[in-house]
Amino acid sequence: MKEISCKLLVVGAGPGGYVCAIRAGQLGVDTVIVEAKKPGGTCLTVGCIPSKALIHAAEEFEKIVHMAGGKGPLGISLSTPKLDLAKTVAWKDGIVGRLTGGVSSLLKKAKVKTVHGWARFRDGKTVEVETETGIQVIRAETVVIATGSVSVELPSLPFGGPVISSTEALALSKLPEKLVVVGGGYIGLELGTAFAKLGSQVSVVEAEPRILPQYDAELTRPVAKRLSELGVEVLTGAKAKGMSTKGDALLVETGDGAEKRLAADKVLVTVGRKPATEGWGLEELVLDRNGRSIHIDDQCRTSMRGVYAIGDVAGEPMLAHRAMAQGEMVAEIIAGHKRNWDKRCIPAICFTDPEVVTAGLLPDEARKTGAEIKVGQFPFSANGRAMTKLGEEGFVRVVARADNHVVLGIQAVGHGVSELSTAFGLAIEMGARLEDIAGTIHAHPTLGEGFQEAALKALGHALHI
Ligand code: FAD
Ligand code: NAD
């Protein structure tokens, strides 16, 4: 049995783990990272990046199909477009390969040792890794658990056969003719929209009364409208009961208690993700939990000395950029820096059509803090750049305290608004007031002008509406 000793051991090389290891390596901390699959984790291999690649391909294809139907106003016509899904998936796999290779190189450059295999804790300082060449024991002064999350499985719809998770959906070589998506949240709507654009007949079954229930109705209305235009059937307040006996349809209880049969080649179950807490010896550690996730404090410390937890395993929000920020912070703490989690917001984007961005508090959330608020909203129908991109649907909305105008939240829904998330996050992190945003020159013609106008609107003097 081989043994290694190190200062820091990171278990899991997703965005949380690999960023933590790179930063620790940069700071001269002797670091080992263990990964059972590929560096980059869920995000790079079966999550953020492959889904955005598929969404992009679908968007391009749908645009061309639209033009070929002679429906577009741009004066462009084409002959019938065709899709080779296997080629699309191979292109997506190429991007994943480049990125995972890039992470390996960055780890090497930071002098981090990577061990490939499944890690199992013996105690809070020691793990055993099943590698291709046998068991590797690693002893460390400090440990970071970054094991990520896994898809939630519904007891009535176990994964297998036609019932798939997002991982299988991103690797299909043949387009399902009829796709039923269970769960109208982030993954279900991002992928459901992509498959509808690629040509599948898509139905979405959502248990709550609205799709994307964590947002307000105003923000999700343009998404619901576009789904309808794309021919996606959305059943809200509905429960998936299980597959039909033949396995060719999903049986659903609709809101009014009736039973409906939705024919399906594939049923994509996207009802959330849960912290990956099984199979790696969590029971050998004495860690407090928050439900399924590992409880952490504002430095990502667990209840066991020298053991940290970051990313999805430490609970919501399960987002790659939050995992990365935690990873960087923990590496600096371990290297002796004074750091704690003092972020004002974690922006979130749903890459639907149109996209939805939220940073900070929604109007109702801001009201619940007891603060009196001002809300300014500017529609893209009054924005020149949006018009030139055929993207007039949607708006930017700014939520600020009424007394001192400090911005509490910013939301947008619209085509290409994901790129505005940087400006939104920066404004909130810097403690911007409405006057700061209104007084910043926003280049013309851009969607960003909508942000400035929303701040002006909240101040009572928007210029273009
Ligand atoms: P993970 O990325 O899950 O990585 C954990 C790693 O640990 C894995 O590689 C796993 O193999 C490894 N591991 C686990 N246990 C062990 C063990 N015992 N031994 C060795 N290795 C182990 N987030 C966004 O911010 N934006 C998006 O657009 C977005 N899109 C998504 C789309 C999909 C389809 C999915 C599924 C997720 C998406 N997410 C997105 C969420 C994002 O992928 C996660 O929040 C992020 O990957 C979490 O990072 P992590 O480091 O905590 O864990
Ligand atoms: P989600 O929480 O976003 O959505 C799950 C949806 O399923 C909810 O709307 C919920 O009401 C519904 N639901 C739950 N049980 C159901 C049932 N039995 N029948 C019908 N509907 C049911 O979860 P997700 O879409 O699986 O994504 C998981 C996580 O991954 C997200 O919370 C997010 O943290 C991350 N993610 C982020 C992005 C992004 O940032 N763009 C993209 C994809 C995933």
Notes on the structure:
The protein is α/β, with parallel strands linked by helices and 465 residues long. It folds into three domains: 4-46 and 89-151 and 274-334, FAD/NAD(P)-binding domain, CATH 3.50.50; 163-271, FAD/NAD(P)-binding domain, CATH 3.50.50.60; 348-459, 2-Layer Sandwich (Enolase-like, domain 1), CATH 3.30.390. The chain contains 13 helices and 24 strands. Strands 1, 2, 3, 4, 5, 6 and 19 form a seven-stranded mixed beta sheet that branches. It has a five-stranded parallel beta sheet with strand order 8-15-9-10-11. The model has no long low-confidence stretch (mean pLDDT 97). Residues 11-17, 34-37, 41-43, 47-48, 51, 118-119, 146-149, 166, 187, 276, 280, 311-312, 318-321, 323, 351 line the site of flavin-adenine dinucleotide.
Q: Can you tag this structure with a few keywords?
A:
binds flavin-adenine dinucleotide; 5-stranded parallel sheet; 465 residues; alpha/beta; FAD/NAD-binding_dom; 7-stranded mixed sheet; Enolase-like, domain 1; 26% strand; 3 domains; binds nicotinamide-adenine-dinucleotide; FAD/NAD(P)-binding domain; 13 helices
